[in-house]
Design brief:
four-stranded antiparallel sheet, 35% strand
């Protein structure tokens, strides 16, 4: 099992969600976050300098089986892509164990209903 975490533009969330749904990923969690990238810039408006380095983004997280890993990554890449700096990042980590609280099922079975 793998955990996929992605930081994306807020404006691309619906496209990413649709692409993940098309890849049979129907469960995920997301949070509004702020972050700072490598670009540094300021904005002067009416003679007042503003720091605009804090960028609003969405943080998406979900766990998948190995067989769904690449299609999940591809879905995020497809949905989040603009070709401009600031499109985001995808992180993949190993998950050692998963347990469904309601039934006590563990492993891959805890992630999905039995097929």
């Amino acid at each position: 099992m793998k955990k996929i975490e992605a930081i994306i533009r807020k404006s691309k969330f619906q496209e990413v969600r649709t692409a993940l749904h098309s890849a049979d990923i129907d469960f995920l969690s997301w949070w509004d976050v702020k972050g700072q990238g490598s670009a540094r810039q300021g904005l002067i408006f009416r003679g007042i300098a503003y720091d605009v380095n804090a960028i609003d983004r969405l943080y998406i997280s979900f766990v998948v089986r190995e067989i769904n890993l690449q299609k999940s990554i591809d879905a995020i890449l497809k949905g989040a892509y603009t070709g401009e700096s600031g499109d985001g990042r995808i992180f993949v980590t190993n998950i050692e164990q998963s347990i469904r609280i309601r039934t006590g099922e563990s492993g891959d079975e805890a992630l999905y209903d039995k097929e």
